[in-house]
Design a protein that fits this description.
about 280 residues; alpha+beta; 5-stranded mixed beta sheet; two-stranded antiparallel ribbon; 10 helices; 7 strands; about 50% helix; about 15% strand; globular
């Protein structure tokens, strides 16, 4: 799960924070423009209002590692052995209850407040500062850089889900997508590997994102490792794509095959036919 490479981690983290601050403000503005929060969103069965409440809950969750305002996770966390996908799906459903009906009447203000709270309480902390994330698993913590990247991805992608449902404009800039891919994917993709589908599989993918980052994704008998700017090695399949397309594929907003047909994702390398299998090795709750 390495992130070795030639990029400036501190500078990129600051860019991600700036992008998150701008995206939070844009999302608040989008929610203000929603005429009916009860309409279906781009992620059924959730409504547009459900998606807005979910984003607020995400902000509360990541911020609670520093504000300590919500440390009793017993009411939200799943009980017993669960896969990563099962844990996240269960927590997502229960966490909607963190945002009550009264709060839903002012989601725009709540999104802005909670997003700014996270940025304020993490100001000046190092990118590798630990963030406790019990919803991913018992005693699991990720870096602040990865958490910031995940919050940015939630804001950008759920902004798209809200906009699609409300029939409003929403754009994801390539530079913002690059920040999500570089900051969070090396940490989160190994969590999200589908162990059953990846069992017995040994494939090395070279994800060449236009303008960066470059990710080496190795699936090896049910386990995945993701290394940023990896040293030269032999790959089975190279996938060249723009950052926005990869972000949308990673979070199941568009299917991989459609991106290939449109030319937005181009397979290459020794075994290019392995490209369509790539997204099947990972889950996106």
């Amino acid at each position: 799960m390495g992130t070795a490479g030639r990029f400036d981690a501190g500078a990129e983290h600051e860019r991600a924070r700036a992008a998150l601050r701008a995206a939070v403000a844009r999302l608040a503005g989008l929610l203000r423009d929603v005429a009916d929060p009860g309409v279906p969103s781009g992620v059924p069965p959730w409504t547009v209002g459900d998606v807005g409440a979910h984003v607020c809950a995400v902000y509360v969750a990541y911020g609670s590692a520093f504000t300590h305002e919500f440390q009793d996770w017993d009411s939200v966390l799943p009980v017993g052995e669960r896969t990563f996908a099962e844990r996240v799906t269960s927590v997502n459903a229960k966490a909607l209850g963190l945002i009550g009906e009264e709060a839903r009447t002012c989601l725009d203000a709540l999104v802005l407040e909670r997003g700014e709270t996270f940025l304020r309480v993490t100001e000046g902390l190092a990118p590798d500062a630990p963030v406790t994330t019990p919803w991913y698993g018992p005693d699991v913590a990720i870096t602040l850089a990865a958490a910031t990247g995940m919050m940015l991805s939630e804001t950008l992608l759920h902004g798209l889900d809200i906009a699609r449902g409300a029939r409003l404009p929403w754009a994801i800039a390539p530079d913002d997508a690059r920040l999500v891919l570089g900051q969070s994917m090396p940490t989160m993709m190994p969590f999200a590997v589908d162990a059953a589908r990846a069992r017995g599989v040994r494939i090395a993918y070279d994800l060449a994102v236009e303008g960066g980052p470059r990710l080496a994704v190795v699936v090896d008998d049910g386990v995945a490792t993701v290394t940023r700017d990896a040293p030269p090695r032999a790959y089975d399949c190279r996938i060249t794509t723009d950052p926005r397309t990869l972000l949308l594929i990673a979070f199941r907003r568009i299917p991989l095959w459609k991106a290939v047909v449109r030319g937005a994702m181009r397979p290459g390398g020794r075994r290019p036919w392995l490209a369509p299998r790539f997204s099947g090795f990972f889950v996106s709750p």
